[in-house]
Write a structure and sequence with these properties.
about 450 residues; alpha/beta; five-stranded parallel beta sheet; 17 helices; elongated; binds zinc ion
Length: about 450
Amino acid sequence: MTQTQTPPGRTASAAPVSQLSSDQINRYKRHLLLPEVGVDGQKKLLNAKVLCIGAGGLGCPISLYLAAAGVGTIGLADVDVVSPSNLQRQVLFGVSTVGEDKVKAAAKRLKDLNPDCKVIEHKVVVNSQNVLELIRDYDIVIDGTDNFPTRYCVGDACVLEKKPNVYGSIFRFEGMVSVFAPHLKNPDTGERGPCYRCMYPEPPDPGSVPSCAEGGVIGVLPGIIGTLQANEVIKLILGIGRPVIGRLLTFSALDMEFKTFKLRRDPACPVCGDHPTIKEPIDYEQFCGSPILDPKSLAETAAEVKHAKSATSGNGQGMTQPKPDPSLDARGLPPGYAYKPDWEVTPREVKGMLDRHEDFYFVDCRLPNEHQITHIEGTELIPLQQLNQHADKLQKNRDRKIVVHCKSGGRSMQFTQALRQAGFKDVKSMAGGILLWNKDVNPGGPQY
Ligand SMILES: [Zn+2]
């Protein structure tokens, strides 16, 4: 059982396992000792087919524990490649797999963990065109995604195809888990369970909820939430315990607190309600107003991988000095950048001002933790959020030239506008922020 590459939705059907070999009895004996599992339960696991959408923070612990438990077929859907910043939490991967397709690297690791496990690699972007076919041959679908269009897409498709959707999500120090399955019953009430849309009928405003890539996430959190999802998958396969259908479990890592909320199916839900209006997948990018694949994060991954590769391919002749990003234009701006000369100054111009010892007040308006990651010598840290608290410092410098920078130019523009509204005459925002500075003026400086 070493097949790996199968088109979406086509799982090659192997003969069901009817007997455990003596190696399997040895491998799974801790399971066999549990009356709730036993030989029959282990056979159910070996014959189960589950699909994990996303091989990231959640998908890693989920698939590791499911493979270890002897789940016979694990599909993994992801288009990403492994990048160095994944390794803080994505425990399937290592330095040796940076730059490889995640599904490929994951399959290798999972098959090493358990040769009983057939891993099916789906290197596809899950969308309304392919989702139904993709999930059709699986018993259970696991949502390990990180964006709203895919969550709604997977949620709706699971209702339409009557597959349990083992849901998990994480952000910073908080996570949540539930099982959405309107075709199954809430074990406490006997009522049909809710779906993802019953919990979140409307997507959040685009840009209002930062992703983990923007807001950060503590590395063990996907381990905790993903392991809880794997536990629910195993319970569903075995038909034991109380699945978390009709309940939402939330976890706070800082408070070390779990809470449970009741969730009910909404009879007016457009997909699982009594009179559904959504009978096939819709355009989820349009519905959510945001893309499935964030072009910014794709570019970031590519840059990270390239940087890691160039760092490890040293030729033993000493370090070469990093060069400014060749894609920048003659002024050191990214191609197509809508530069506003009245409001902005380029990092290259700021460097010139520093080199000529021109007098100006240089403000970093990011948060202190960002300043610690990377900063420019001589800047004064005044977070945008604390602008009013630092009014006296700013007032003292109101007759000087002021340059404000942030991470990529958005917050510094707000800061600049606020100061001009307060009557400051000579204030400009540094275009592209410190990320552009670290591409052009200080090439090789941290990108975060
Ligand atoms: Zn619903």
